[in-house]
Fold:
Amino acid sequence: MLTLTASPIPRTLEMALTGIRDLSMVNTPPADRRPILTYVGEHDPAAVSEALRRELLREGQAFYVHNRVADIDSVARRVRSLVPEARVAIAHGQMDEGSLESVVFDFWERRYDVLVCTTIIESGIDMPSVNTLIVDRADLLGLGQLHQIRGRVGRGGQRAYAYLFHPADRVLSEQAYERLRTIGEHTELGSGFKIAMRDLEIRGAGNLLGADQSGHIAAVGYDLYVQLVAEAVAEARGEARPTPPTVALDVPGDAHLPKDYVTAEDARLEAYRRLASVSSDADVEDIGAEWVDRYGPLPGPAVGLLALARLRTAAMARGIREITMSSVRPVGAANPVARVAPVRLPASAEVRLRRLAPGASYRADSSQLLIPIRPGALPADVLRELLEELIPQADTGTDPGSL
Structure:
């Protein structure tokens, strides 16, 4: 079975991402196709009038989408009052087949300038002369719908414009805000896949074996859900999935993203997720630079969070699986002590250990390294620098702790 789609529904996309279906992408746009300039904002009659008049001046046509049949006639009257010179027609799914066909045919023959319609134009419409789109209640439409409807314009070589309006006197729901923000940010050619990915995150993947096409993902989170399904698919195919290395870190310190630094909860969760998946210092530095660029200078807790990430990558590269540090000092110790395991040090490294970290000790019988942390130092930085000085990075395939 071959499925062709510009913006897959969440369940279809999730099947592709987890390996249930194979995925191929066509990234080359049609010849002469240009990105659609998209405006998202509060409904403004002046903006509607200006957009329609601009289209009329270049002898083009426009879609005005109003997805309520009950008052679509009054909306058409408002459009006529805003642009009296425009020839306005109405089309919706409750019209009889003959009347609807006649209106659409007359619009195709350019006997009308503006078609006030419902979302029936969502698919199957290819009119290169229509290059302005106005949607007056975009907050009520789904993300896939908005992308499909926007694709009804800009199908020729001319620049197309899309105006997605929401009421000025109503507070948008969080999901409606996310949908409008996503459609406004992704305007480049071939952005359907990115929009579908965001739609999957917002609505959820649905039921693989049932009728639900969205939902259910919020219970466990997007990344964990995809991981669980991918593991189940691999198990059903008899494929061995390697267990990714993990490092247990228990190092005291203030390490988090403050709410007043990254205010959006979804952005904070995404930042934590990206930081948890890094595998090198370069990845950590890139994330830190992005935070500075997006949110400003790093506060202390964010600096501590990046320091922990660097420590974790240094430990992973050396086969270390556990670094714990108690806030209580051991008997006889002047400073708190960090325990690093498993570690095997050659004799030459033990000599350097005593020079680099006075008071540190190595226990070969249990493959443990005990390191005192001096007062005022950031434990994560002290431990990382010491590990990089003492232990070379493990070669690919080296067993943990075999250094």
Observations:
- Residues 395-403 have pLDDT under 50 and may be disordered.
